[in-house]
Specification:
This protein has 9 helices and no strands. By secondary structure, the protein is an all-alpha fold.
Length: about 200
């Protein structure tokens, strides 16, 4: 690994870590420089401004996320099998890369995601096709895309956050995702997708 590649990797991981812990409000080029033991001027060798840095970080994490999420997944799978594969992959990604997961989640839910420099995700395209296939096969009821995404991944996202926080903010009890509680939540979500007979 060249020095330039090593420095860019360091900057990327430090920036992701800072944002994952403190959000975008807690992030600045000065803070990144200090955490990386570099000058602010050195950062501008790699990124022309903060916006470019954030967009490139998101594209990098989104690429890794897509690769992980689409592992073993087929848009032609039955709905239950396909969604369960996505859920298992999602949990695997979040637990293996908690800072990346938190950064990705923050970015996706911010105004920054509308930048023209954000790449189209193969994951989004594959899941949209998967949903259309399931509706066409009459495996699930038709619904607006926003409802589909919210139902398919919103509850899982919340469960992962409980796992990463380690302590439930409501009960103050320790929480960990297990195959059993993941499957229980999954069965409830499947019920929400089912067509009325």
């Amino acid at each position: 690994m060249t020095k330039a590649v090593a420095t860019e990797t360091l900057l990327r991981e430090q920036a992701i870590s800072i944002i994952a812990k403190g959000g975008f409000e807690g992030f600045s080029m000065n803070k990144l420089a200090k955490a990386s033991n570099l000058s602010v001027a050195a950062i501008y060798i790699y990124y022309k401004n903060k916006e470019e840095l954030l967009n490139r970080l998101f594209n990098y994490v989104q690429t890794d996320f897509s690769i992980c999420m689409l592992s073993g997944f087929s848009a032609d799978a039955s709905f239950g099998v396909g969604l369960w594969t996505l859920w298992e992959n999602y949990v695997k990604f979040a637990i293996a890369n908690p800072s990346h997961f938190m950064f990705f989640d923050l970015f996706r839910n911010s105004h920054l995601v509308n930048s023209l420099d954000i790449e189209v995700s193969p994951f989004n395209q594959a899941v949209e096709q998967f949903a259309r296939n399931a509706i066409n096969k009459k495996e699930i009821k038709g619904m607006e895309p926003e409802l589909f995404w919210s139902l398919a991944f919103g509850p899982l996202n919340a469960l992962i956050r409980f796992h990463l926080d380690k302590e439930n903010v409501y009960t103050h009890e320790m929480f960990e995702i297990t195959k059993e509680n993941l499957k229980r939540l999954f069965e409830m979500i499947l019920t929400g997708f089912q067509r009325k007979k």
